[in-house]
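Support case: user asked for a sample of complex input and structure output to validate their parser. Sending the pair below.
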Amino acid sequence: MKSRPFLISIFCLLGSFSAFACGDGAYLVEPDLHWIFYTGYNSADENWQNNLNRAFREENITFWHNYVHQKVSKEEVEAALYDVMLLNSHTQNAFFRYLIDHNDKEALQYWMLLKTSDSAYIKEMSWQQSAWFYDEKEGERYRGWWNEDENPLHDLSISQVETLDETVIDQCKNAQIRPRYILQVMRKYFYSRDYQHCINVWEKYGKTVPKSILRNQCLNYYGGALRRVDRDAEAAVAYATIGYFNPKLHYDVNVLRDIYQQNPNSEAFEFMIQEFVNTYFDHVYKKRHHNPYYDYYSMEEYILPETAKSLAFNKLSETILKEGKTNNPALWLSAQSALAFIDGDLNTAISLLGQAEKQKGSKAVKDNIRMMKLMFNALRTDIDDKYEETLYPDLKWLVNIINTENPEECFCYNDYDSFCKPSSTNHHVKVLRRTILLGVIPHFQRLNMPYKCMAYQNLYDEVVALYKEERSMARKGEFHRGTNFLGATYIHPPVYHKADFDTYLEPHDMGEPCTKIVADSTLWFLNMDYGTTFFTCIDTANPQDLLRYVQFLKSGGKTAAEKFVIQNSYRDLNFYNELIATKYMRMERYDSALVYLKRVSPKFLRSQNIYMQIDNEHNPFTEGWITRKDQQAKFRLPFNPAKAYANNPSKETFCKVMQKLQNLMKNAKSEEERANAAYAYGLGLFRSGIGHAWALNYYEYGYSWGAHEGHGAPGADEELEARVNARVDEVLDIALKETRDNILSLKCKILHSQQRKSYMVKIKVNDYWEHEIFNKSVRETFCDLACDYDSPEETRDWRWSAWYY
Amino acid sequence: MKKCIAFCTLLLVCLVGCQQKNPNNNKLKYSGNAVYYWQTWFSLDEQNTEFLNKNDIRTIYLRFFDVDINPTEYSSDKCAPVATVNISEESLGNLNIVPVIFITPAAIKEYESFTDNLAHRVYAMCVKNKISIDEVQFDCDWTESTKNAYFQFIKEIRPALKEYFKKDIAISSTIRLHQLMQEPPAVDYGVLMCYNTGDFKDFKTDNSILDVKDVEKYAKHLKKYALPLKLALPDFSWDVEFDGNHQFVRLNRGNYGEEYDSTHLKHLKGNMYAISPVGEEETTKFIRHEVVSAETILKSKALVEKYYGNMPIVLYHLDNKQLSKYSDDEIKAFFD
């Protein structure tokens, strides 16, 4: 057998292999297991599968590391277990060498079996993904999909262990290897479709398998086998034990009833009922409000079967509560409350929750009731006066829980997807998200208190911030400057950017709300404090609202609730003052901008990621013609704005130059001076608005401004562009009206067109070239002007077209 | 007089019989009449079956697929199978099928040990189509520059096939006339392709399919060619199209008269025709209609056998339309 093509394709397969293979040959992915999971109360994680694989990998490495008394490095053990390249040469590995040297026949025999199995499996996968693949049953068919029950890989994976049976377990003297044989024998029976034997093996030997992920894998086969012999209730319990949600079993009231009849106090109920409620939620709410495909179906057709599930559950729950056999009545009642909430009946939900609170229940159930209460209270509209005080104790309790949990599980901002759909599915984070984003913020929006919206958004972002440690380091002056510029980590603004906050009331993970886009809005970028939803909120708010919020922050809060919110917020005033100043700059209120800029420390400014872009290379006033002596003479201003800015490129200098130009436009000594001032002012507006000096007004390069054409310009960006263009046009019109200078007039016209799109320049320029400009000096000027815009390649084309048109 | 004629004939037969033949010509284990099947849909109709029975043909060299540079992007394989034959299961009967894999010059140039995948695919195709095989043939126009790669491939494919089929699989290879000048590949036997002897792109070529003069050039090497051989004879025809400047345009494997409007055709000389322009854009074109006469085929066969001895015949290829150009007797003569 030649190994070369095999090895090449192995590289392509490594990713999928890691998902399939769990170390010593067991395959976690089962016909019954799905790729997307929900789990129970506390650590809901959509990546359950991946985490489990990872955890198993770690557990497995540790197990074998200890098995060889840590005489071999963990790396060697890991390579022995998981490096597929070693499949054909594993005896060279230190781990296997150890087993050989110590004559551990049982372990070696076990590994030989498993490695042969792995090798065959990988080879088959490699073959199936190759261009040469031809199916022995189907011929040349679409590859990459098969019916799970007929997956040839499963047959293949057991072909190597088909001779195994219970005797190998009985004969194995090694207590550490034995449970592994139990798993293999179960696996063999399962894929041989000998389900009864699979069940028998677990029922006979299961107790000897220590608590571990390996045990879970055995239970996985056990559950699958039970299901196939129609013992659904037991299968559901087995699956619930390992935290695997199977919608066919766990979203079925009949199965719940059967389990109850077998054991009214089954431990599986907590997991199952939670999953029942979550699934109901997904089916009813999420699909009703989100999935556009369901528009094709009538609501009755789609929702009614779900409502029947809710009714059936309530009926079962009432019966169970009446019988009084359950030791966890709070669980059943709180589930009824959740279903009522999902059905839109908040009052009934609150009432049922009140009853549940008084009933006996496990700690997890009681905690969940408290969280539900927090959410329900956040949505209430009848407690405006005591709203914050009502929420405060439970909110504080919840935030404390989140703060003690694994931050990696909790953070919400890590990539583009997380903006569209916050990534954390940690149950506590979910509750906080629903409480604040769907309850508290809309509440204060309704009361017209934007500063409170900002306050709670700030709290939320701080609690679920990405990598808190990195963020706090960044705030000490170590921003990751420039890492996200110019599309390096390019992010489309999410769809909900335009969402109307007032109508944004879906109580689930539907993304982050944000205030309406206003004219001076900026764009997103992913860089610490400028990449959060909170930043979007304050950046899109008007300066007065932001000022009000800053006052609130500075006040420290009056009530305990306010104090709590402020204490958990980002409070660096440099951050806010700089943003307020920038807002004023966008509004051309340079005097106000300067007031706030003066309050920002130079250290803070230097740590901003836009700092590197605010330099002379991005001088908003520079143009080729300014440097030409013959044209300079015609530039009638008492000062050179480009040079003035170049002396100390900063927001502050820019404001001062623009202020000067504003004054000149008002108090010019001549019409030409006014015209020149207006032109230079227009240039400043244009360059800082949508040109290369964008960092003066924004925190991310606007990608519809030219650099990323073809990606589609989002509405906000177009809106901004239109606003800047309109304003530049106004100013240039003044210049055009006042000037008698042909060159200035031409420059204004070119800028007029260049603002829109570069191709317009070409058309316009050609137009002028043909009809107006014939003398040499003007022609040269035009060529210099063309040089100012865009890329050298384009400029060359323009020059060419200018000369030869 | 009659005695004299009989004596002369006997003398001629003796003379021919006494000519030195290649010692390999009787080493061939696999004999009997055979045909190639070179289309992408394998299905034998009544006419095919009748032809096979009439000529006692029990072996079909069936093209399974070509190996070419991977045209797709979904896998990292440099080379990949293309134009795989679809096999109609009912058509097989008791026929002995020899899979043939054509390896393009580009693919053999890029050869990177695709033997395992190739063997696996041949095996999978045999399993899927319930074909039992003892032999696989490879067709490749290898040259001096690609010889090593091809020979390496031949070396590697045998154990690979054995691994999948769990038995020894014989390997044969097509041999082009120009390859007779080289050492033979390490296969069980070769099939000498007595066709494609000329350069079809050359306007001056008279008949690129088969020209006795071309065969003559290479046949002498047969005397010492160290490989048992079968002989493949052509029954196909084609039209070669040239533009007004005698530059090659395309090869039309369709039959003459179907592709071109006869009203615009003007016979020039021999097998050359001119097509007068039809529209404003059109210019004069030239068509060389190449058909091989039975006489030429038999002459070439005799010439080859003169140097090598008798060889089992494989007809290229099983196509009712093409075969209809020859009489039953002519076909019989090809196989005799």
